[in-house]
Every structure is written in structure tokens, then in C-alpha cells.
Amino acid sequence: MGQMLRALKLIWLAGSVLFLSSVLAQTAEHSAESIASALRAEQFDRALDLLQAALQKFPSNGQLWTMQGVAYAGKGQRKEALTSFRRALKIFPDNVPALQGTAQIDYDAGNPEGISVIEHLLRLRPNDLTSHGMLAILEFQQSQCSKAVPHFDKAEPLFKSQLPALHAYATCLVKLKRFQEAANVLQKALVLNPNDPRERQVLSSVQLIAHQAQAAISTLDPLLSAGPDAQILELASAAYEERHDTEKAVDALRRAILLDPQNVQLYVDFAAISATHQSFQVGINVVNDGINLQPKAAPLYFARGVLYVQLRKRTPLIPANH
Predict the structure, then answer these.
(1) How far apart are CA 152 and CA 158, in angstroms?
(2) How far apart are the first and last CA of the chain?
(3) Coil, helix or strand for 61?
(4) What's the pLDDT tens digit per position in 129-171?
(5) CA–CA gap between residue 41 and residue 35 (Å, rounded)
(6) I need a labelling partner for 230 at 20 to 30 A (CA). Which of 61, 82, 269, 306 fits?
(7) Degrees to nearest 5, angle at CA 309 with 258 and 246
(8) Does this model's pTM top 0.85?
(9) Do 291 and 304 meet the contact criterion of CB atoms below 8 Å apart?
(10) Cα 129 from Cα 155, distance rounded (Å)
(11) Which ranges of the chain have pLDDT less than 50?
(12) Helix, strand, coil shares of the chain as percentages rounded to 5?
């Protein structure tokens, strides 16, 4: 999101300089040019000195108050910057640079009051990507994903190199059960961070929920080749089973259990596969191993009970070689 913040700062300064042309008719040209020059050079103390004198002469000039807000913001004095921007907005509520300055400060603070400010900006400039991006993040932070996603969509070009923003976008899509779109966004995040196992794990999980089993396996392949942990093997097992490759699904779960024998969920997963393929005794044997290690784990007794109820004299489809 740093790119977005830098872009807005440039907009502020550019907007201030543009507004300065309307101030020239009311103030001494030399003074106005000096203020603009100081802002462009980020000489904020000098700009404030010049603005103090100008505002004494023209206290109702919203552009001057806006530039004072920019100068204070440049110094990191957010309270003073907000006061200046709000003074400018009282004079002219549609003052775009003042709205942008207020929005930026609220955004940096994660202040939900910034939402209404940015909505005002978008009424004036409905195609501004920066405003859409900031609004998306603020609404995401307020758990308003149904409102945030349309703005994420419009601001996507800004986010293509921003991992936190892509993660927020994907999280909202998952909450809205738009799993295919979430997987597409997370794929972009993986391109930015291909060596992060967690990135691959999250993407493959969403791909699996979206019934993209082969894509999930492809995402996991580098991890499976590099000595996976039990969590990765459990995820791979689910993907293999979704792809109807039961042999690999069972093998992955067996390996996961060997790596993490105290993990109750792995035995429950194995019981589920055993029940699906009517290999009840195999499942019972594996669950018994889990009960020996975790004698107080209620889910294991429940899983074993289900398998006992379903047990019939059949040839198991999973070799009983555990």
C-alpha cells in the first residue's frame, strides 16, 4: 500500500500548486510562488512561515488553508494538518486536495471516519483509483467486505504489487464465498512471494474449496518435493481425494500421521476416507492407534463408533496394511 500513499502525496502537492494559480489574483505573485516552491521542495517550515503571513491577509482563502495542511502533514503534525484541512473544507466543501489530505490522515490512523470523506471524493472523482483503494482497505478493516470488494475490483491495478492489499482483497472474497476469484487474487500474491510456504498453503486451501483439486496439487508440488510437514500433507491428501486419487490421499495421510502422531484431526480425516470407500476396518485400526496416543480425544471415539456401525464383511478398497 506504500505505492498508494506516495501517489496521494503527489496528488496533494500537485493539487496545491494548481490551486495556487487562483490565489495569484489575490496575493502577491512572489509570495505565492515562494509557497509553491517551498512545498515542492518539501521545505515545510519555510512554507508555513510564508503561509502564516498570507493567511493573515486572506483568512477566508481555502486554498491557503489547504496548503497549510499539506505543510503540516509533511512535517508529521497530523492534528494541525487536520485542523487546516477542515478549515479549508468549511470554506469550500468540495476542495479536492483538502478532502484528500483529510482522507490520508484518517487512512493512516485506520479511522473509519475516513470512509465518508473518501466517499465524498469519489462523488467528485468516481474513477480515482487511489480513492477506491483507500476506501477498500478502510471498509475491509471494518469487516464490511460486501462494500469493500467493488472498490478492491476498481483499484486492483494499484494493488498488483502490494501483498497486504492482495491478502485483504482475497480475504473479503472468501468471506463472500467467491472462492474462484479469491484463488485468482491469491495466485497474484504467490507470484510476488513464491518462496513463502504459507502463501502456497493458503492458495491451495482456497483452490480446494473452489474444487480446483489439480490446481491445489500443482500449488503444493514444490512443498511436497521439499519435505512437507504434516499440515501440507493433510492438505495434499484432501486435494488427492477430491481428484479421486484415493491411493495418494491415503499415503499422504499416513505420512502426516507419522510426522504428527498427536494430531487428532489426521485420524478423523483417515476415518472419513475409510468410510467413504467402505474400508471400515482399516479406518478402525488407524483410529485405534490415535486413541492409544490420545485416550481422552472424544472425536476419535465418535469416528470409531461411526466406522463400527458401518462395518460390514466386504473386501476393503484400502489395503489393510497399517
Answers:
(1) 9
(2) 51
(3) coil
(4) 999 999 999 999 999 999 999 999 999 999 989 999 999 999 9
(5) 10
(6) 306
(7) 40
(8) no
(9) yes
(10) 5
(11) 1-13, 16-17, 20-28, 315-317, 319, 322
(12) 75, 0, 25
In angstroms, the CA 134 to CA 153 distance is: 12
Is the CB of residue 285 less than 8 Å from the CB of residue 307? no
CA 153 to chain centre: 13
Cell triple for residue 278? 467402505
Phi, psi of 64 (to 5 degrees): -65, -40
- Sorted by sequence, the CB contacts under 8 Å of residue 151 that are 6+ apart come out as 132, 133, 135, 136, 139
Q: Which residue ranges make up each domain of the chain? A: 194-260, 263-322
How many Cα atoms occupy the beta-carbon half-sphere of 144 within 13 Å? 12
pLDDT for the residue 15 = 52
In 3D space, the residue among 55, 83, 56, 59 whose CA is nearest the CA of residue 69 turns out to be 83
| CATH architecture type of domain 194-260 | Alpha Horseshoe (1.25)
Quick check: 226 and 242 in contact, CB under 8 A? no
Joined together, the cell numbers standing for residue 248 give 495418494
DSSP reduced 3-state for 187: helix
Taking residue 90's Cβ as centre, other Cβ atoms within 10 Å add up to: 13
Cell reading at 10: 503527489
Are 67 and 94 contacting, i.e. CB atoms less than 8 angstroms apart?
A: no
Cell 483529510 identifies what position? 102
Instruction: Give which of 181, 142, 185, 144 is closest to 163, Cα–Cα.
Output: 185
